[in-house]
Amino acid sequence: MVRLQVSRYFCDASGCAARTFAEQIPGVSVRHGRRTPHLTRMLVDIGLALAGRAGSRLAATIGLPAGRNVLLRLVRALPDRLIGAVSVLGVDDFALRRGHRYGTILIDMDTHRPIDVLDDRLADTFAAWLEEHPGVTVVCRDRGGAYAEGARTGAPQAIQVADRWHLWKNLAEQVEKTVAAHHGCIRTAYATPTAEAADEPDAAAAMDAAAVDRWEGSAIVARTKERYAAVQALKAQGKGIKAIRRELGLAKETVRKFYRAASVDELLVTARAGRCSILDPFKPFLHDAWNAGRTNVSALYREIVEQGYRGSYATVCDYLGPFRTQTAPPPAPTVPKVRRITSWLLSHPDHLDTDDQVELKQVRAACPELDTTAARVATFAQILTELRGEELDAWMTTVEADDLPHLHRFVRGLRADNAAVVNGLTLPHNSGAVEGAVNRIKMMKRQMYGRAKFDLLRKRILHAA
């Protein structure tokens, strides 16, 4: 304990409201303060890092007991930092409440530090901020139209740069849809029966029929068909995506996907072939054991559980059901799933192992459309990584001549935002620092139990290290 002795002063002036006041020691005491500035700074840092409840527990552990509300009040009391001149600005949105309310974070790309937080993601709000802070020469943004419009209005002199990561993400989405649309070619190529399988056509057919029945009777198929019918019925009434979203209570992206789909099969093909079955690694063992006379499903289930199987007994029982009256055929070659093929197409060849390279060659040989897609993806990757934006127009023209409707949609998006895309593929600027800040905001929200007040979250964003 430090005992401090200071002077106390009295004022005799009749008009003075301060009758008595004490001497202050810089760095030790402040007027009306209950703690030293140094202690206050320590508690503020704890509040910025961990928010209320977790911060209060840590403070008590290190001998600085403070309630969670005390920490939150100290954070809220922090003054805003001066923004100053900003030449390269990064902008992106984040969810305060996903699907309902969003905010905007602004980053000084020279220092990679947040400089301001807006309480919505509207073009007018962003434009007004730019008008209040002139001097921005470059705006790094994602593909969102609101920020593009806000930048054109508030800072018409600024160069807009589309983020390369979002460009690659948009391409990946269309490549996955292309693979899903042509996955039938791959299944056909892998379905060529071996000599052993040809001797047991009935068993193979029964196994395939059972798999189809299990899929068609699953909850995901029923839900997808129901949602597709509801969205298409409202679309036929002339309603737009926003109106359908409000009426059905679905997310915007979900409604957009069902709204634009030409048929329900287009939606089901990715789900049907997008992921491997949890039973796939154990099928050869089950076939060999069944043909060896070990037909006790419960015993087989226990054996594969010991080998690492984490699925249900019902899955094993349904799979072995068609073999009750006949021998099990040799397991069919595993057909690469949509997402696995997509990852091959989007990966650099040097990053694939030998087996993946062999399977990718088989996939490309089985489907000319996927072979063309692979070539177009490789060319775009070179343009993106080597900043050869001047070659983009020729690439888009080549893609438009191909019979690849999903890539055509990607090209239309590029042409709609052509200037920013070319800048993103030419200039060294990118939005990596912005994406990192958004990830930190997500962590802050989790620490605040998902009910973050905007003013408190804004202070933490602007002052956290």
TrEMBL record:
InterPro entries: HTH_IS21_transposase_type (IPR017894), Transpos_ISL3 (IPR047951), Transposase_DDE (IPR002560). It comes from Virgisporangium aurantiacum. Residues 226-290 form the HTH IS21-type domain. This is ISL3 family transposase. Signal peptide: none annotated. It holds the Pfam family DDE_Tnp_ISL3.
